[in-house]
Amino acid sequence: MAVIERDLTPRLRKAALQFPAITLTGPRQSGKSTLCRALFSKLPYANLEAPDTRAFATQDPRAFLAQFPGGAVIDEVQRAPELPSYLQGIIDADPRPGRWILTGSQDLALLESVSQSLAGRSAVLHLLPLARSEVVRFERHPETLDEAIISGGYPRIFDRKLDPSDWLSAYVATYIDRDVRTISNIGDLATFQRFVELCAGRTSQLLNYSGLASDCGISQPTAKAWLSVLETSFIAFRLPPYHTNLRKRLVKMPKLHFYDTGLACWLLGIRSPDQFRSHPLRGAIFETWVVSEIVKHRLNRGEPGGLSFYRDRDGVEVDLIIEHADRSTLVEAKASQTASASLFGGARRVRGHLAGASRRCDVVIAYGGHEAQSRTEGKLVPWAQLHHETWTE
What pLDDT does residue 329 have? Predict the structure, then answer.
């Protein structure tokens, strides 16, 4: 696989100078192995997906780790959950930084193991699918908004020049058949796949567990448990509602978003740019694309929190609020290709409601057009320039 520069690279290099171990999590096929093997090419490599390697690591962990006196890159380490416990003593005996690189694709199981055994000894970082800033580093990459959204951000699609629909079909089959069984005791995989498809149809919407459970024919507790599985494996995430002491009746439900719009489109049966262009959920999926792009940008730079959305009972809303030390940024996603003052309507009303909070509120409208504009009300940022914005300062 071709190795492009990943936005997380500077933080990985810095962590390797400070911590004896690095734990890198993220969804399957997000490029964790490729990145770690490229950055730490002098370390030996072991993949616990291989049955014989996994058997050695689980049955005789001391001997397994003794093979690597100078450290190693150990892939899919959650497959041997006791291994970090044995690694603790080795690190305490020799705490030189950057020797042990652990990767895994199941956040909850891996982080529990690491937090119990390697607290203070391992930096924990997350590698999500490609952000637009990374996609454009490939020689051939989507040039139009519709192509970019249905292609998503899994590296192999761009590295191998694959049809996104074909690759995502295999990815979903692998995820449903193998990973879900590993993460959770889900007996009815067909119903779970239906649940995932229903979640895709609700991207950018308020998360109503009752309605989701009813449409899928499962209980609310099951719906909550299954959504946790999607979060654990970096498929979807919940964006919390904005909380404030303003005298406004704000909604309390989170919004549901997918990390990868290509995957969301595939689950919805969208197979081509033409199909997406006229799809009734085009606006919602574009909103998810904008939000996930900003999430990736901030996570790659060590700023995972500080994000919410605003919606009150009167229907006044803005898609994303970014909290900075001295101000807030209101981000509204509009799939329209036409630049107009009407795009600022929602953000203008929200800024008016937040004016009493004695914080400056900047406004950014991310839209489907091509012309950047700076207006009195805020900035209009074309979708293709979104990654040039700085969302962390």
Answer: 95
